[in-house]
Amino acid sequence: MIWIFDSIILIFLVVTAIISLQVKDLLSASMIFGVYSFLMCLLWAGMAAVDVAFTEAAVGAGVSAVFLIATVFRTSRRSSD
Amino acid sequence: MSAVSDFPDWGDPHSPANSYRLSQGYITDTFPQTSVPNMVTAVLADYRGYDTMFETVVIFTAGIAIIGILRRYGPKDKVIPEQKLYKKEPDLIVETTCRLMIPIIQLFALYVVAHGHHSPGGGFQGGVIFGASFILLALARDLQAAQKWVPESRILKLAGTGIFIYAGFGFLCLLLGSNFLDYAILHKVMGVTPIEARSHSMLGVEIGVAFTVTAIMFSIYSNLASNGYMKEGL
Question: Which of A53, A55, A74 faces B224 most closely, judged by CB atoms?
């Protein structure tokens, strides 16, 4: 039963990873990257690696998304490539 | 993709990583040797304490590098027109929510640090959550409101204090005639059994890690958000 949840999360993970690399608006890319980190955190928790999941939730989904958004506000919002 | 099918099953007790005697030793010996139920923290802060000490130094160095690159002095250069969009009025709902949330977040961060050797968590996570509470204050009000609590002059002192606490535990062990970061000897000063001394020392070094991570996280945010001038944030 758990593999259904794992597969759904894994598909969303791949989708968010590709979108956050492809999207031109860097603010959206940062927020989708936060979603990616949160899905990664769910996967770690599903694999019973609670310490890693906790770190991923705090650092990946929490603080580094804020850092990226702060950087976007102070540079340019559109990606040139 | 064809190599994936050769991987051992998830959680397979006979896979090479699980059947090697090192990991079995950690699983069976951690609680009798250190009286710490969370063996991840025990490996992190005790058996591999030397690595974790220099991870803390890496965070400190990264913080210094970011301050060195981003920090700017002198009058502000002219504001980019796009930034005028983000000038904000004080918002009642946002401020009240943050006023309610920030004490809870900080209390939870202290719990994560203090309970890190009994449940998931520890110095890194607790420090990040504690730093995030100041970042939330800076986002909800402005950067000055958060800098009242963590002024710029105090950031590097706080971060250095964290490493000093961690290394201090190591050198205290040396002074008492044991190896660097071999906490069992600290039972002489702590007045507990050698096994409990390892558990208490883990809590001590986690507090040191939390000091450094809190200070550096807030410093990175305030430098990024204020364009290096540390005057007004987002």
Answer: A74
Q: Does B70 touch chain A (CB under 8 A)?
A: no
CB neighbours of residue B155 within 10 Å: 21
Asked if the Cβ–Cβ distance from B128 to A58 is below 8 Å, we say yes
The whole-angstrom distance between A21's CA and the closest CA on chain B is 22
Does A80 fall in a domain? no
Closest by CA position to B64, among listed B139, B163, B132: B163
Chain A residues in contact with B202 (beta carbon < 8 A):
none
Contact in structure between B204 and B169 (CB atoms under 8 Å) = yes
B99 token code pair? 């006023």
Tokens of B178: 């044991």
Q: Is residue B197's pLDDT more than 70?
A: yes
Asked if residue A79 belongs to a domain, the reply is no
Q: Which of A47, A54, A71 sits opposite B125 (nearest CB)?
A: A54
Q: In whole angstroms, what is the distance from residue B218 CA to residue B224 CA?
A: 10
Q: Where in chain B are the domains?
A: 14-71+91-225
- Answer whether residue B82 shows pLDDT above 80: no
pTM passes above 0.90: no
Cα distance between residue B40 and residue B30, in whole Å = 10
Domain count, chain A: 1
Residues of chain B contacting A50 with CB distance shorter than 8 Å = 120
pLDDT, position B233: 65
Residue A30 lies in a domain: yes
Number of helices (H) and strands (E), helices first, in chain B? 10, 0
Q: Hunting for tokens 């809870």 — which residue is that? A: B104
The answer to whether A73 contacts B234, with C-beta atoms less than 8 Å apart, is yes
